[in-house]
User: Which sequence fits this backbone?
């Protein structure tokens, strides 16, 4: 059964980024569902984590993120985490021209998943608010 968690990778996320969330975790660790709701409200992403084994036997963790502002169920970001490295998975959503350009700019060139998700959140919010 998938568990909803916050993805952390020191390569992309400076430790200081998560100090407020860690504080929330320590306060709310006795009530896990409250913690998940707060993370969802703060980040505007539902985050689902699944452990998987690749054909070569290596264990990886797949993080699936879906924005609260997504217009369809197919608008999901997927990341594979293995041994301290996080890579975005190309899927139907991330292969769309507009999203692929953002992946290239924010993740590949600027090495920043937070900048990518923040930009994507603002664009999705603006599209949803205009409609």
Assistant:
């Amino acid at each position: 059964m998938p568990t909803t968690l916050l993805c952390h990778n020191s390569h992309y996320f400076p430790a200081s980024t998560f100090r407020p969330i860690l504080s929330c975790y320590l306060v709310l660790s006795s009530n896990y569902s409250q913690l998940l709701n707060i993370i969802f409200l703060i980040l505007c992403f539902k985050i689902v984590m699944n452990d998987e084994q690749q054909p070569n036997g290596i264990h990886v963790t797949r993080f699936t993120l879906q924005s609260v502002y997504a217009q369809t169920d197919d608008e999901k970001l997927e990341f594979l985490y293995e041994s301290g490295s996080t890579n975005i998975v190309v899927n139907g959503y991330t292969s769309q021209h507009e999203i692929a350009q953002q992946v290239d700019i924010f993740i590949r060139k600027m090495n920043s998943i937070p900048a990518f998700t923040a930009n994507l959140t603002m664009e999705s919010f603006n599209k949803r608010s205009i409609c």
About this structure: The chain has one domain: 3-130. Residues 113-130 form the longest helix (18 residues).
